[in-house]
Design brief:
mainly alpha, elongated, single chain, 5 helices, 175 residues, 3-stranded antiparallel beta sheet
């Protein structure tokens, strides 16, 4: 069904969800600082999963250590693109899931940007030691899961006509 939704409701809902998700990320990081910093890791599942405090001065897998200005610029550009796409995406129910993923990616990006700007590093605390996966946080979960789900949605859920409609709606019109 191709029912139209009210743009104002969609935008307000998106903003509220963005704020709630960003606050949840910041609260979990604050709890990590209060409960984990300077402490031994908290083992949740022995040899599998633990809470381990880390101040990450780079990106995933430790790349770009200390390059905070690069992260700031990349984040601002990504957020600008997301806001543009969110606002231009047709306001039909079938695209609601795309808007949700865009909000999640934005909240994760801002959550980590807040840390980088205020502290010079991102607080990470989830660690899957079974596979020695990089330590991560709630914002990273938002970005990673939403990006994967967005790609899968575009590849397997949307029809060719839907993709064409999205591209036409976000295309910058020449004047």
């Amino acid at each position: 069904m191709n029912r139209k939704i009210r743009p104002s409701f969609s935008i307000i809902t998106g903003i509220v969800c963005f704020v709630v998700l960003t606050m949840l990320d910041q609260v979990t990081k604050e709890l990590a600082v209060l409960r984990l910093k300077g402490q031994e890791p908290v083992i949740l599942i022995r040899h599998v999963f633990q809470l381990y405090y880390l101040e990450n001065h780079g990106a995933a897998f430790g790349i770009l250590q200390g390059k905070q200005s690069v992260f700031f610029i990349i984040t601002v550009v990504i957020l600008a693109v997301i806001v543009y796409v969110y606002a231009r995406l047709p306001f039909f129910r079938k695209y609601r899931v795309i808007r949700i993923f865009l909000v999640m990616i934005s909240a994760g990006a801002i959550g980590n940007l807040i840390d980088r700007v205020s502290q010079g590093y991102v607080v990470d605390f989830f660690y899957f030691n079974l596979i020695d996966f990089p330590i991560f946080n709630v914002a990273d979960i938002y970005v990673t899961c939403a990006t994967i789900l967005l790609v899968l949605t575009v590849l397997f859920r949307l029809k060719e006509d839907d993709i064409t409609e999205i591209i036409q709606s976000i295309r910058i019109k020449k004047t």
